[in-house]
Each structure stands twice: as structure tokens, then as C-alpha cells.
Amino acid sequence: MTYDYQMEEYLRNALSGSLHSSNQSDDINYNERSLSGSYFRDLKEKLLIEYDNKSLNDVMDCRISKTSFGDALKITTKEKIDFFIEDNDFMHQINSNLKLLPRIGLKTEKNLKNKGYDTIESLMDHDKYGNIATKFLDEMEGMSFRDIMDLLDNNRYSKRCRDNLIKCISLTDIENFKFMDIETKGLSNVPIILIGVAEIKGSSIVASQYFLRDYAEEPNIIEAYLSHLDEDSVHVTFNGKTFDVPFIKNRCTHNGIEANMDLPHLDLMYFAKNLWSNSLPNCQLQTIEREIFGIKRQGDVPGQYIPGYYDTYLIEKNIGPVVPIIEHNCQDIISLASFLEKMYEDVN
């Protein structure tokens, strides 16, 4: 779920982007807009006029996806992308990280390497650590990508070695990344109104968004999203570990949907803070877009107005108020691919 950061930080200490309005000529200062309720009331009225008598089919690539619960409206956006993860021989890097073994810390690792034990494999003949090293390497043979991520994440030095969780993505296919973000009616126990997932397919990134046309369709859009996931999938989000994934789990329970959401998860918010906090004014999603990628969004709308905009859509049967929400969500998930690729380049 994405909100204006000034408001969102107060509500759930999260990070987000900005909503993208079709009014590209608007040049009102962002801070003025974020504090002006009248601006957003006026914007909503302008959107209602602009999109009067139009359907989402008129302005976006829409189609119906069939689920066991019923129909779900799918909005598809396809863009060219040059997404590349260069091989970094990460298994060799794991072999060189003696701290992954029990009872080996920073000081012990340094002492062992000074004695010529540069790899876990070389420790197999060590009097004290030989059995541990042998067992570790045997277990590594059968480890899945998720197992390796868990190993790195659960290691007591994971915060100090957080880069390893980005470096290890070379071990999975890029098609497995599911760049995901949701928009909701509020912070808890309310419907999801939009689920977006972007995937790398060849030289393109394809965004699939499932929009809630009315409240009865929530299980439809959730199941439609879940159809993109399999045992090899890797969630890539921005604050998704804290918000998006737990929220979807909760709504699955509410709607009686059985789902396996316990997948490998790269929450890029934490990596952004680790990598870029010293070079950026802050690590908000929209700040990263602007400062690193030159993406400047227009017509930002704080998340506090999303429920009202959505209610107006339902009451007026007018798509205007939800168009910027859908466009914003699409930009969010596409931006996550650029973030991940840039992070991988920086740590390697």
C-alpha cells in the first residue's frame, strides 16, 4: 500500500511513492498540495469531469481473468526493460564466508584466514571445525534458493552482511521475481482495492494489476494475484514484509482462501537504507526514483485520500478518482525492478 510519506510515516512508519495524476500541467508545490484538502477535493472533481462516461477499457489495456471465485479485472502494462543480473559466482562467496558456520565470529574468521583457511572447504581438515564444515557443505548441496536466503538472513551477522542477500539473487532466474505492491481501503481489516505484480519476461517488464470493481470481488483479485506465484517465486517489495504480505495473508483468511505466501522475500526498503542513506536526503521510494533514476512524478496524492477517492468511484460509477491510483501502483512495481538491479550493481 502506498501513501504520501509525510502522512504515512505517522501512520505506519513506512515508505512510499506518490500518486500519478493525469493532470501533467499541474506545477503546485508538493508540500502545499500535501497539506491542502481543498486541492485534493478539486483534483477529484477534475478527474470526475475528465473521465465522465469513460470506462477503464477506454484508457487502459483491460481484460477479464477467470478465477474460482469469479471474474477479476486485469490491467496490463508492458514496457521494454534492460534488466540484467551478471553472474557473481556467489556460491564461491558463500564458501569464503566462514562466519556462516556455528561458533565462528569475526575474530575467529580473521584468525583462521591468517592461518590459510580461506574457505569453508579448506576447514574440512581442521581439527576443531572439520566436522562442522563438512556437514555445512553437504547440506549446501541440496539447498534451494529459499534455503540459502534463510541461511543468510538468519545468520547472526546478517545485518553486518546484508549485502549478501542482494548478491545471492544471481542464484535464481530473474523470471522468478514478483515485484509487488497493494493499495487498500485503510491500514487493517479492510479490503484490498488493487494488487499489482510486475514480472520480467524476456526484454520486457509486464505489470499485471487486479482492480476491485466492487467489494464482492476481493477474493477474485486475490486469487488472480496468487496465480502468478509458484514455489520458485520471490517477492520483491518496498516495506512489503511489514505491510503488503501480512495484509494479503489477513485478507486471504477473511475470504477463506488457502495461499502460500511464505516465499523468499526481498524487502528493498531495508536495503535502500543500508546502501543509500548517506547519499540521499531520505530513503523514501519517490526520493530514490527522483535522485537516482530521474523519475519525477506529478500530481502526488496522499494515501489518506485513497479511501475517499475509491468511495467516490463506487458512488458515482466514474473511473476518474481511481485512475491516478492505478497509474501510481503501476509505476511503483516497475520502479522496484530498477531498484533491485541498481542495488545488485552497487553491492557487486
Describe this entry's structure for a reader.
It is a single chain. 43% of the residues lie in helices and 14% in strands. By secondary structure, it is an alpha/beta fold. A 7-stranded mixed sheet has the order 1-2-5-4-3-6-7. The chain is elongated, with a radius of gyration of 23 Å.
Q: What is the gist of this entry?
A:
With 348 residues, the chain is an alpha/beta fold. It contains 15 helices and 7 strands. It has a 7-stranded mixed β-sheet.
**How can the largest sheet be summarized?**
7 strands, mixed
How are the strands of the largest sheet arranged?
1-2-5-4-3-6-7
Helical residue percent band: 40-55%
Helix count, DSSP H or I runs of 4 or more residues: 15
The low-confidence parts are 1-35
Shape: elongated
What is the β-strand count? 7
The end-to-end distance, rounded to whole angstroms, is 30 Å
Q: How much of the sequence is in beta strands?
A: 5-15%
Structural Rg: 23 Å
Mean pLDDT across every amino acid position: 88
